[in-house]
Amino acid sequence: MDFALSKKHEMARTLFKEFAENEVKPLAQDVDETEQFPKETVQKMAENGFLGIPIPKEYGGQGCDPLTYVMCVEELSKVCGTTGVIVSAHTSLCCDPIQTYGTEEQKKKYLPDLASGKKLGAFGLTEPGAGTDAQGQQTKAVLDGNEWVLNGSKCFITNGKEADVYIVIAVTGIIEKRGRKLKEISAFIVDKGTPGFSFGTKEKKMGIRGSSTYELIFEDCRIPKENLLGKQGKGFGIAMHTLDGGRIGIASQALGLAEGALEATIEYVKERKQFGRTIGQFQNTQFQLADMATKVEAAKLLVYKAAMAKATQKVYSVEAAMAKLYAAEVAMEVTTKAVQLHGGYGYIREYDVERMMRDAKITEIYEGTSEVQRMVISGNLLK
Amino acid sequence: MKIVVCVKQVPDTKGGVKFNPDGTLDRGAMLTIMNPDDKAGLEAALKLKDEYDAEVTVLTMGLPKADEVLREAMAMGADKGVLVTDRVLGGADTWATSTTLAGAIRNLDYDLIITGRQAIDGDTAQVGPQISEHLDIPVISYAQDIKIDGDNVVVERQYEDRYHVVKAKMPCLITALSELNEPRYMTPGGIFDAYDAEVTVWGRKDLKDVDDANIGLAGSPTKIAKASDKVRKGAGEKVTLDPEESVAYIMDKLKEKHVI
Amino acid sequence: MGLEEYKGVYVFAQQVDNELSGIAFELLGKAKDLAKDLDTDVTAVLIGSEVKDLADELAAYGADKVIVVDDPELKEYRTEPYTHALASVINEYKPEIMLVGATAIGRDLGPRVSARVATGLTADCTVLEIGDFPLVAIPGKEQKHNQLLMTRPAFGGNTIATIACPDNRPQMATVRPGVMQAIDKIEGAKAEVIEFNPGFTPDNKYVEIMEVVKSVTDVVDIMDANILVSGGRGVGSPENFKILEDLAEVLGGEVSCSRAVVDAGWKPRDIQVGQTGKTVRPNVYFAIGISGAIQHVAGMEEADIIVAINKDDTAPIFDVADYGIVGDLNKIVPMLTEQLKTVVK
């Protein structure tokens, strides 16, 4: 067992850190304040290969492993949660299912542009009446000659409207399983600009406010037959497997937010004076920091372990769920404590921890709430 | 076109200077980086690679750990890396360093050699011009812009109050200013490739036409008589005076320190 | 050849557009001290085209002798002909000490010359003195006397080193401008003028100057400034930075600022000092209306002299300032500028 990072990974960390400090951090406050999607940052990330980290070189990617990708999301999220989730949704929820389930033609058609960042990706599963419960799906896809016709809507879609390629989950029929009627679910690749595919309202959010969250609307949207991703009827498995990967991405985002808040707090308590001493000299502060740092480290080990599991195992649902559950809760706890240790300044937008605390909350919710993660973990224990 | 870029691994003195409790510099705690001026030189070379399909070789002299800066340079896009490392080369001053690097460069094909103006640890700005002297080629220091014109380079050479547009026939050595450009980032895939690639490692015996009298500590004409970590400055004087007296106080101090 | 054949303290008398640079006088001032300790004389090496007239001025600032290398090839500074000129002077006249200014010219010329004459060169010296090497005698090892001991900062100013060049001659140093003191001008002083021309034959190392563009862009780099007048939020408004600009102007310095000022949109980020801005090391740093947060101090604590003006006497900036003035910057700064105008030419 070796907990030391390889030289490759250490250097990759240096790269992501440098990029985050120079290119992302200076914009983080503004991105949050104005709720603007950071287009220029995404462009810069594209130029530097950040949008194709785990994609094989033969498809124009960087040919790195999931751990490298995780460190990228982590370092970006340390300074800006919005930027972290843009990369996570693109990579884990769009590139990954195409790479895993796509035909050779689909991979050749989509992956190079996604990996180079020429195109951005998104994933549509959630509907107003169905989140992780895939059986609640209402969006339908009907085969009509050589085309699938999509009708319905998806909500809370990260990278919505900004993305060019969407993985969309839809109901393609009814099947009988042990006497019960179940929805047959399939996955599709839908290009932005396809007639009948439009965007609803933009959500106004508590955190990750620069991330573009939209409703996707399909009205007789006709896509080519070959845009079915994976086999017909395998959509539920594809969605669940995709979310396993996505959860590692969100766990990395949560980890980054916690680390960012911890670092900012360490700097702050060394500087801020009360009663003639820096607040870092008070034992309460010291013990709080010790707890925060220990939890961050534990979260990091779980997240990195999940990344390694994705690289080496076919199934990594439990590792991903544990990493996300723990990292998200640590992010919430650490950012909240960070605000507390900052006192009044922590409640003011000028200080980064205020934003980090708002950003952290979503990590306990999206790509499966903490409750869902507990279901996944316990389900595996009791099966 | 073939370009050799000399780079140095240096402690990161900018921003992150760390001190021991007694106020001395804590070298162990400081990270190492590619010297900023050298990185600008590398970027200039990589731009020429993009434009003219030049082959870029990065060369460094240092401890085995200096391998890292070569990998970094390769992750940015350099084609090859050469590390010159040998116990007998340690403790070199700028003279011995430049004779060593020149001895390594003699084994390489080059049209252009680019070095940074100076390293942030030594701040001497000497090694580049000295290499050019050993190789008997022209040097253009303080380059703020580099263009290729046939067999020539056309460089904007910066001075305090002006710049010269200078043309020199290649082969030629240029020292780069960090203002020259904004160095590109590495790419994640570039990092993986750089660590999968081979770096050439040369020792003393691989240096061409270099006399033993001119390398390492023994071959360094300059000798350190004394070195000390500068003690961190504490609080000085603090006065509360009315404005006229305050101004007089400042004037006195500026005179005392020969500022005016 | 024995080292003892090398005699005299020489300085490279830098001129640009046939006007002597200030550093030439500063070097002469220091050379005089060194020459006195060594009981020798001071020689200025004047290189250029039609520069002979400048010899008297060098004499007025302390040169006993002036060696003039005058040739049309030397009109504008170019590395090769100047290197050839200075290296030839060294080979011909064998100075014991050769001082060069650490200017954009001297930091190019110095290393090239030192490599050609095969001697050591110590860069950017701030202190030069005559002494023993090793400083303290070591049994079994020869202690050499009357050596040039050259002290310079390194590691971004975090360490200082004293360096000697015991076995090679000349002992060469480049010297930071603004550190050494020129002597008061001696009107009517005359020096022995020696004309010397080693011959100049252009070869591959002679570069061609295609254009001379004077006075570079108005984009200043605060990292290069010798004097910085830096303002914080205490300055009060973007308009009020005018009083800082006036002070900087009279001192020949530049204006910089703290992060708070950039965040407030008063000043651009490229003049921000601190951890998220630039790290500066000027000779003098005026911190005006700057509280002195750690992140700011990290970027300026290496300044040689820090003068802080702040109305809050508990401001942390006073913990690092050499000279702290508790008071109203709006009153003190303009008055200081006026006072300085009367002394600074």
Give a written overview of the molecule.
The complex is a heterotrimer of chains A (383), B (260) and C (345). Chain A has 383 residues and is of the alpha+beta class. Chain A is 52% helix and 18% strand. In chain B, helix 2 packs across helix 5 and helix 3 packs across helix 4. In chain B, the strands form two sheets. Chain B has a nine-stranded mixed sheet with strand order 9-8-7-10-6-1-4-5-11, sandwiched between helices. A two-stranded antiparallel sheet of chain B has the order 2-3. With 260 residues, chain B is α/β, with parallel strands linked by helices. Chain C has two domains: 193 residues, HUPs (Rossmann fold); 122 residues, TPP-binding domain (Rossmann fold, 3-Layer(aba) Sandwich). Chain C has 345 residues and is of the alpha/beta class. In chain C, the strands form four sheets. Chain C has a seven-stranded parallel sheet with strand order 7-11-6-1-4-5-12, sandwiched between helices. Chain C is globular, with a radius of gyration of 23 Å. The interface between B and C is large, with 81 and 94 residues. Strand 9 of chain B pairs antiparallel with strand 13 of chain C, so a sheet runs across the interface. Chain C: It comes from Anaerostipes hominis (ex Liu et al. 2021).
Q: How are the SSEs placed, and which strands pair?
A:
The complex is a heterotrimer of chains A (383), B (260) and C (345).
Chain A: H1 7-34, H2 39-47, H3 66-79, H4 81-101, H5 104-115, E1 121-124, E2 140-144, E3 147-158, E4 165-177, E5 180-191, E6 197-202, E7 213-224, E8 228-229, H6 235-271, E9 273-274, E10 277-278, H7 283-312, H8 317-342, H9 352-363, H10 370-381
Parallel strand pairs in A: 1-4
Antiparallel strand pairs in A: 2-3, 3-7, 4-5, 5-8, 6-7, 9-10
Chain B: E1 2-6, E2 9-11, E3 32-34, H1 36-52, E4 55-61, H2 67-76, E5 80-84, H3 94-105, E6 112-116, H4 127-135, E7 139-149, E8 152-158, E9 162-169, E10 172-176, H5 188-196, E11 200-202, E12 223-229, E13 237-240, H6 243-256
Parallel strand pairs in B: 1-4, 1-6, 4-5, 5-11, 6-10, 7-10
Antiparallel strand pairs in B: 2-3, 7-8, 8-9
Helix pairs in contact in B: 2-5, 3-4
Chain C: E1 9-12, E2 15-16, E3 19-20, H1 22-38, E4 42-48, H2 55-60, E5 65-70, H3 79-93, E6 97-101, H4 106-117, E7 121-125, E8 127-133, E9 144-154, E10 159-164, E11 171-175, E12 192-195, E13 208-214, E14 227-231, H5 242-251, E15 254-257, H6 259-263, E16 284-288, H7 294-297, E17 305-310, E18 323-326, H8 329-343
Parallel strand pairs in C: 1-4, 1-6, 4-5, 5-12, 6-11, 7-11, 14-15, 14-16, 16-17, 17-18
Antiparallel strand pairs in C: 2-3, 8-9, 9-10
Helix pairs in contact in C: 3-4, 5-8
